Amino acid sequence: MKVHCPYRCDYCQNLKGEANHWWLRALNADQFVLLPWDPISADTDGYEHICSGSCATKALSKWMAQVGVQPVRSMAAAFSSVRTQ
Question: In this predicted model, what pLDDT tens digit does every residue of 60-74 receive, in sequence order?
C-alpha cells in the first residue's frame, strides 16, 4: 500500500513539514543507502521515510542487526588489497 502525504517518519512518527530535509531508504537487505527526499519515490512502495540523523542511525542499527547481512567491501578497501598484491 502506498504512503500518501502527510508523510510520517517510520522511526519516530514525526510529520513531514514543508521545509524539513528528510531522507528515503530503499528496503534493500544487501546495502544500506540513504537517498535525498523525492516526493515521487516517497509515494512508492519499498521506501522508508526518515526524518533526521537520529532516525537514520536507528535505521542503520536495525539494518545491521538483521540476520545474514554481510558487509559490502568499499571500493577503497578493494583497491588497497589489489595494490598490495
Answer: 999 988 866 566 666
Residue-wise DSSP of 9-70: -TTT-PBP-SS---EEEE--SS---EEE--HHHHTSTTEEEE-SHHHHHHHHHHHHTSTT--
C-alpha span between 63 and 45 (Å, rounded): 18
Q: Note whether 33 and 48 are within 8 A (CB).
A: no
Best CA proximity match to 7, nearest among 29, 40, 34: 40
What size, in residues, is the chain? 85
Q: Where are the domains of the chain?
A: 23-83
8 beta partners: 15
pTM for the full predicted model:
0.70
Specify the residue for cell string 502527510.
6
